[in-house]
Amino acid sequence: MLRRVARPLFFIGCVVIVFGLGRIHSSRESYDLTNSFRFAWEITYAALLLVAAYGAGLPDLVRTRRQAVASAQKFSTLSRRAAKPISSRWAVPLRRSTLPWVCG
To answer: Which residue, 75, 45, 46, 78, is CA-closest to 61?
Structure first.
């Protein structure tokens, strides 16, 4: 039962975190997220996260905590490396402090 729920919760959680943090940032910086160019970036980044998670085998192939940590590290590295060329092309107008791990 728990295994069936893990996949949708994981993917929904990734999307909610990306858009939730974008919403928090837009409210702090006083702009409308859906009317800015950052909204397309968030959709792209969420899609990259989901593809990287699938490539790392999350959450299906994980059986132990050690495997979970290794898969999470692989997942974050894959998504960061996939986002770097896209961010250097699209996110040039973004301040470097907004995405320091991507624009690095």
So the answer is: 75
